[in-house]
Structure prediction request, 642 residues.
Amino acid sequence: MNRKRYFHFFIHLILIVSFVIIAFPVFYAFIVSTQTFQDVFVYPPKFTPGNDTIQNYVAAWETVKMGRLLFNSTLISVAVAVGKIVLSLMAAFAFTYFGDFKGKGLFFVIILITHMLPLPIRIVPTFELMRSFNWVDTYYALTVPFFASATGVLLFRQLFLTVPASLCDAARVDGITPMGFLMRILIPLSRTNVSALFLIEFLYMWNQYLWPLVVTNRDEMRVVQIGLKMLLAGQAQAADWNIIMAGTIIAMLPPLIILFVMQSSLVKGFSMQEEK
Amino acid sequence: MAEVRLSNITKRFGSNAVVKQVDLTVKDKEFLVLVGPSGCGKTTTLRMVAGLEEVTEGEIYIGERKVNDVPPKDRDIAMVFQNYALYPHMNVYKNMAFGLQLRNFPKSEIDRRVKEGAKILGIQELLSRKPRELSGGQRQRVAMGRAIVRKPHVFLFDEPLSNLDAKLRVQMRGELARLHERLETTIIYVTHDQVEAMTLADRIVVMDDGFVMQVGTPLNVYENPKNEFVAGFIGSPSMNFLETNVVEDNKRLYVDGGSFRLAIPEKLSKRYRPRLDDKVIFGIRPEHINDRSFVTDVPGREKLEAIVDVVEPVGSEVILIVTVGDHHLTAKVDPHTKASVHKPIDLSVDMNNLHLFDKETGEVIE
Ligand SMILES: Nc1ncnc2c1ncn2[C@@H]1O[C@H](COP(=O)(O)OP(=O)(O)O)[C@@H](O)[C@H]1O
Ligand SMILES: [Mg+2]
Prediction:
């Protein structure tokens, strides 16, 4: 009994410490985003909110047309997350259930290799490809190159391998088609992983900076991360940290909203999986 | 109507044959049990009937129709799997309705059948539960419910009771028998448990190493096993097998095991005389070896002196393991036996129930 309480205390201590470490920058960014330009540079730094909140957020929003950027980022993040999940599910399904198509091993290796090449290495050839398609400055360029996902294929393949073979047999006797098996059995069983992958891929795309910078020129096609950089680049001398931080907080909101919306289903999903 | 016929079926995985030249006819409305040790090809045979496994050689007919190339859903069969294979994300109702939905049955008909099936199996209260909220026995029922709502002409069961505890197994066994009576469909049932086979089957098919060893009614297979394998597999405890010679003394035939000699009943001497002086395997079931003080000496009963090694009371009887010379035997004796370990005992062997097998081939001598 005593040992258990000691253990709980210890766990909580770790949780609290890591929370503070992770949350402090966010907290500080928020404080700065409410302060005046002068407040930011006093020493020692002030950890109390200032009075410029509204001005800072309005300035951040207007300077870089934040509305359009948020729209772009949300659009491409959702599109990529959905596209990746759909493609991964189909590919994993093929790799798991269609035993012996020609070149199966080779295809799998190719998919894995694409995963091992980080984006900066692929950036030049991919850009050339986009240009030859006339896709520069379009949503296609911002989304299509991200659709293939080795992570997703591997994740779902591992998951499908744990589905008992007899479930497939039972469904076949019940009269299911292969696509029906994917849609009505496998995908419902993968719900948790689909949600998790959606979240991960959404964030991954939301945080893209280099690729959008390379394939877009017009301001209307820019994304949030570039917008933040633009806030920083506008100044000749000292940066307006209060306004930049306001922009940062704005940029954080959509992922946060998604996280909150999906949190309950994720937690439920994980606890359900443990039951199995 | 729904006879199932397997004609010279062979199944190979790669070059490895696991079902070999099986010829079998399952009669309409018959409860046929495939029984045999683990790995002998029972499941593979059943899966070929279901259409889940392709046939390498031979033909399968359901009714008049050759079904080798017919997909499972069009074979008019339903299957119950060993691990139940319920859809984890659907509740009981949906699990049972799924196959009907896929066949585009009208909603009202689906509802009627599911409720009716649930009633037959006594699972009405469980319809909204998910499989993980059910006990093993309840899952078993749902798996059966899923099969019966389809009203197929042939039911296939693959060891459906093997994941249940002993008590539940006996109970479900009874329910299965009643269900068969009620549904009047052809059933092919796979098990490795010979007690299950004996109690449920109209006819049993004993398999070993991919071959069909014997087909017959439970009693017939029990009383007239065709070979040493079947004799040893059916019946519990297992039949005793002793290496003996057939000898003649004073016009009487005997089996001679060196340390014992038992007379072969007169009426059987004609059958065994051609084997005079041959080495044969003498088979006798434990229930035909009894404590001599509890049986009356009738013709064909022979006395056998033994030393008791083990005494196992199981309530309704006592199982003895005894030694005769260098032979070991199992005997089923009266529960009031005075037998005690390391003491001699007089046994009575009912030689009317002896079996002799060829030592080389293991085939019964007829
Ligand atoms: N898909 C398969 N691939 C290769 N070998 C298999 C396959 N399925 C079964 N076998 C083999 O066939 C033999 C018979 O298996 P099975 O029919 O499951 O036996 P049983 O149900 O009687 O225990 C076993 O030796 C098993 O290893
Ligand atoms: Mg089996």
Notes: Residues 64-234 of chain A form a domain with the MetI-like fold fold (CATH 1.10.3720.10).
